[in-house]
Design brief:
This is Similar to Saccharomyces cerevisiae YKL128C PMU1 Putative phosphomutase. Residues 28-47 are annotated as: Disordered. One of its GO terms (cellular component) is cytoplasm. 46% of the residues lie in helices and 11% in strands. It has 359 residues and is α/β, with parallel strands linked by helices. Helix 2 (43-54) runs antiparallel to helix 3.
Length: 359
Amino acid sequence: MLFLLALLTAAALATVLYFHKRRDSGSQNKRLLDSSRNNGSDSLNNEAKLTSQYGSMLITQALLKSRQHQQQKSRRNITYSNAGYGVFAQSDPDTDDTQFNYLTARDFGLVLEGSWRELQQRLHSLNRNPPTPNTRYKLLFLARHGQGYHNLAIEIYGQKAWDDYWSLLDTDGNIVWGPDPELTPLGTEQAKRNNIAWRKQIDDRDILVPKTHYVSPFTRALDTYKETWNRLRNDKTDGGPLVVEDLRETIGVHTCDRRRTRSYIRERYPGYPIEDGFAEKDELWTADYRETPEEQNVRIRRFLDQYVFGDEGDDAVVVGVTAHSGTIKSVLEVIGHRKFNVGTGGIIPVLVKAVVEDL
């Protein structure tokens, strides 16, 4: 009996120390990052220093190596900014993102008098007569996946309990959220609502339809794309969405953000091409380190550099991206857009200006 009591006490103490270490590590990370910002150091060096001292080197090494390789390959740097002021309500600082509903708003939030046709003319004019020869403009529709079982668990247990305990597990015994959870019935319904909304916009409003689509490798994002664009696109003739590793949710610790294998994606979504270099198994996720927002911004910027405005993409001026809340938050930050919360199944259009400079 005494042995059992001692064992339980030791386990409880270990748990307390573990979570204390996580909180302490987060505080140290923040102090180091703030110090680096005050010293005006290069952002990539900040991220490498931050991770090498206080977390797993795996994520940062992969991110920095890949971005450096991409810059050496393209020999250029791209500066992004938000060109959506006066175009979309979501860019207006006075728009309340907690109350805004893209489904009931006019044209997904478009505020131009002439609607989508005027935006099409503006895009054409901007790209034909840019302020500088190396400036380009593109319209991105950023879609968040519908409700997944991890989102349902957060609603049941609350954000703090989720972050501190439940996110580390695969299940509570009733619902399963790790790894890589499925959509809930509500999540599937949210994607189907978007399908109806897109169809109405296409038929009645002449919306600018994405020519090219990119999607996260997680099931909840892939299924959201599938339901959203069902019968609106023919993946055999129009081409399926490109599955891109960089579009995945924040990496590490949370089991819901651990992806499945390349083989699983290829077999379940046979019409969806997968980017070159996509590993069979998840080589980035670790149980003891959570990717920082700064690190996530590195890979999201790389995605924009590489595909949307880069040589490995195409000339599409209207692009669709189906991913996650963390991914969308990072895109908005990289392009200088105001913070805007996008709920499960939500969509936000953004007009992006890119200035390309040769290195």
